[in-house]
Description:
Radius of gyration: 19 Å
Number of strands: 0
Shape: elongated
Keywords: DNA-binding, Transcription, Transcription regulation
Structural class: mainly alpha
Order of helices and strands: HHHHHHHHHH
Protein name: TetR/AcrR family transcriptional regulator
DNA-binding region: 29-48
Domain HTH tetR-type: 6-66
Number of domains: 2
Organism: Rhizobium indigoferae
Amino acid sequence: MGRTREFDEQAVLTGAMHIFRKQGYQAASIRDLEEATGLKGGSIYHAFGDKAGLFDTAFEHYHRTVLGGRIERFAPPGSGLQGLRELFLSLLHEPDDGSLGCLITNMAVEFGGGVNPHPRVEAALGLLRTTFRSRLTEVPTIARDADGAKANRTATRLLAFYQGLLVLIRGGDDKAGLRQAIEDEFNQLETMS
């Protein structure tokens, strides 16, 4: 019989998630993770196996709570283009006005370039693409596109725009200019629909 965990797993995963967002996987040391989670190295290894295990669990936490929560809050099924607009605008408002960026974007860059993409990154980007395509098909003119090619192309374009916005936000770009770019994109999509 295993021991029960004597820590708040959600708090630990949130702390680890922020360190990985801020520093990346490679640069995050066990010492950094100890400080962020409040756990000693031995407890991290006991609970998660190793740094990679903690990362994997923290990434899943991010996927479920941050990305999934953001989609559920701003672009739930039935919200169409307005939901997507709100989802994109929500990127401009990180907690504590921070700019840690998106764990998915940061890890896509850090782990990218290989033959096999990181499965967590691939799943998260897939969720975004599927969400974009789904909300786009709620627009009557796009829904009439029998083979779905227009929704697929537009979803890919929006995914590139979404990820680009996250990079610019992380880089400290002017949020007023980014807000206008988002408004322009969705105003254009609305005129096409």
